[in-house]
Model the fold of this input.
Amino acid sequence: MNAPSPTGGAAPGEFLPETPLVSRIPIGYSRRHLLLPCRTASGELVLLSGNPGAREAIDEMRFLSGPVRIVPAPPEEVLSRIDAAYERAHAPERDIAEGLDAEWDLDVAAAIEETKDLLDSPDEAPVIRFVHSVLFRAIRERSSDIHFEPYEKELVVRNRVDGILYPMVSAPRKWHAPAVSRIKVMAGLDIGERRLPQDGRIRIRLGGKEIDIRVSTVPTAFGERAVLRILDRSSILLGLPDLGMEPADLAQMERFLSRSSGILLVTGPTGSGKTTTLYAALQRLDSGTKNIITIEDPVEYQIRGIGQIQVNPKIHLTFAGGLRSILRQDPDIIMVGEIRDQETAEIAIQASLTGHLVLSTLHTNDSASAVTRLVDMGIEPFLVASSVCGVMAQRLVRRLCPECKVPYAPREEELRGLGLPAGTKGPFHRPLGCPKCANTGYSGRTGLYEILPADEAIRSLILTRSDADGIKALAVSRGMRTILSAGAEKVAAGTTSVEEVLRVTQED
Done:
């Protein structure tokens, strides 16, 4: 007969971490022995265990906690709970900032000390705990960037979530230099050089997750400003079907990617998701039978089976120079992170005309402008017409939070702004705000896409050096859906709001 379960019928989900004990136990110790002290709903102290054989560690825990009941649980669940518990127990950055008073002086030695895991440093110097807590909160809130901004009387920290900057915390002005010094040391930058911009990279672990952080510092009137771009190496890259494309757009992208030669351009402003789209396309193309090589600045995510080259101007490895070298590597598919100049454009076009499929990005507002941008760079129109197979312009809009969005009837001017006729039926929704979306009314993002296939009619206009408006007008008459039209469809489907679509399309 099996022995009765020591849980007494309680499921592990009913236990909450015992924070005072958690704060006294190093996270490495808890992970190694798979032990986590918790409380039941009735207040009983228990020890969640994923390793019943760790008797010595259990005895040590009992020495700290006193009598405690052992509750077995699956190892993977205990490990997940340990990471979550130590994240919650980590000192909040606002409390630390408020505690940075005049009686504390900067400990330079502590400020430059390295750390192995952000969660495994509860007793560090205040400035280190402050920086680590800011990083932790930003990662927890799915931030893409963190801004450390010095002003006359304070240090303001803001984070970008779903494309929008939000204030995170303010700290006394005197702690700006120590905080930036800590960031620079973590990124391997020169803490003595404050007059010139610097770029670096931090690689950290947070609760077992691998995180890459790109660091950029620039001098301003009140000191160095630091911006950190967060790249979660453990996150799963999106596939083409996950980008929010309509079925017709997805089918058109598949047709572009099935070609053996030509250039596919993805356009849009900074932060519009161009790199994510290119990575999704590369994953779609990576069948194991093709040689795919990229040149990027920077390489944001590593993709297995694809050769990725990092641009490095310090050693004169530019997009153009790297692209020339790639052509000697017998590639089938080439991805160029960005076409910035005439030289890069010329090499990319020659590559596409000699039997290679080339994927790249341009900074233009719409798809038609990408074609005229190449001509403006000095590329002959007949080369553009011969090489470009298609252009996709895109924007990212925030999704309405499904927990708190509320239906409403839009005003006529709102419908007019989206190009919709009066009386258009929804369901239309607007943001409200709730704890799950941090009271923003939005959660996550989706894409708006405008796809311009370079067919015979479009090529004829390119050859006659037609302007972008003429190319766009012809494409729309032949069925192309503009970014604004794609946004209107998302609004009418209740996916996003009128304000959000107008925000990302107002420059068009």
Residues 1-10, 98-116 have pLDDT under 50 and may be disordered.
